[in-house]
Amino acid sequence: MPSIVPNTSRRHFLGAIVVAPAMVTAKPTIISTWQAGLDVLHNRHGDEPVKLVRSKEGRELSLARYQTAHDFFPDVRKPVQDLPDFLYHAGITAQLGLSAHLLDVGFPDEWCARNIGLRVAKSLAYANATGFGHDCPKMARLARVLTPYWKWNPSRLRDRRPPSDWGCKPDEARVLLGAMLKQVRHVTGHTPDRLMQLREGSDA
Fold this sequence. Notes:
This protein has about 200 residues and is mostly helical.
């Protein structure tokens, strides 16, 4: 089973921030806790610095990404006959789930599009640098297989040789993705029925 490191402190910190329609900068205590890890990633990848700002709109988009990740989760009832197609959907699932965390802690969606794109491994690194708490070597390995996930698009591979899947096994990948989404739910508090409540203004 994948190793999950619960991170209640992240929810404790962020839960104290009132998410209002106006933009709200994350607490300085959170920034100071995460800044060293963010600086390492910025320098390693040459990314532009990011300012974490939470908002009601970001929270709503985060929840929508979380729910869409479940929509793309590879169906356990269907046997895997096309591994590239399976990995393509697995990559979308992982990226959407990690995006839900990044948006929830205040990453601008535009920044993520410019600096992370479809790189699942990079999303996981930035997520763990900002309190995601999912220290799972097997998930990190799967994220590398899936990065960037467009490389597994069946339409792209029609006349090309598939890249290496590093011996990825669908059953194990499903378990890893399920554990990752469970961690997203743990740190964000998202549940499948929350989007309508949020849009109706009842989110606290």
